[in-house]
Write a structure and sequence with these properties.
By secondary structure, this protein is α/β, with parallel strands linked by helices. It has a single domain, classed as Rossmann fold (3-Layer(aba) Sandwich), CATH 3.40.50.850. Helix content is about 20%, strand content about 25%. The protein is built from four helices and eight strands. The strands form two sheets. Strands 5-2-1-6-7-8 form a six-stranded parallel sheet. The protein has a two-stranded antiparallel ribbon with strand order 3-4. The protein is globular.
Length: about 200
């Protein structure tokens, strides 16, 4: 395993798996592959959506708004989501089948009420950092492989940001699943390629 490589596992949480509040179809199917991939990397980082109940991205907090509708937030377009991954709830916990004992770091994101956070590196304003880039650089890690949920949102934003920050970034598509909201998967794959992210099937 290369000493400068890390596996970044994006939001493999109960609410994003079948039966969860914002389930991604087949989200639980990737768990064995994600567990196996951990042995291929010197470091493992897990991200965890961690919202307060009154988060501004929840449709329920906008009277009359429907889930999956769009608003214009101060930082740009924002999908209004069903309530999900609320701090301290079972839905916010990692999938029970996910091997977490090798995790060197857990990055919690989306905990600021007024701003959503898809990327492992920045809030959705593209300015407020999570601290992950600094952590990886301090450890001398330059090669990042991404997997998890969902391909077209948090995986996409994380991998694109990694490439823009100068990391070598790849996405194992077979270890991801997508929401595919109004063509968002095709758009995500195009953006990932344009950013220089390597896409593999595993």
């Amino acid at each position: 395993m290369p000493a400068d490589s890390a596996l970044i596992v994006i939001d493999l949480q109960n609410d994003f798996c079948p039966g969860g509040l914002l389930a991604v179809a087949g989200g639980d199917e990737i768990v064995p592959a994600v567990n196996a991939m951990q042995a291929e990397h010197a470091a493992v980082v897990l991200t965890q959506d961690w919202h307060p109940g009154d988060h501004s991205s929840f449709a329920a907090n906008h009277p009359g708004a429907e889930p999956f509708s769009m608003i214009e937030a101060p930082y740009g377009p924002q999908v209004l989501w069903p309530v999900h991954c609320v701090q301290g709830t079972p839905g916010a916990e990692f999938h029970p089948g996910l091997a977490t004992e090798r995790a060197d770091l857990v990055i919690r994101k989306g905990f600021r009420r007024e701003i959503d956070s898809y990327s492992a590196f920045f809030e959705n304003d593209h300015e407020t950092p999570t601290g992950l880039a600094g952590y990886l650089r301090e450890r001398g890690i330059a090669d990042l492989e991404f997997c998890g949920l969902a391909t077209d949102f948090c995986v996409r934003w994380s991998a694109v940001d990694a490439a823009r920050l100068g990391f070598r970034a790849s996405v194992r598509l077979s270890a991801c699943r997508a929401i595919d909201l109004d063509g968002s998967l095709a758009q995500a794959l195009e953006e990932l390629r344009a950013a220089g992210v390597t896409l593999t099937e595993g």
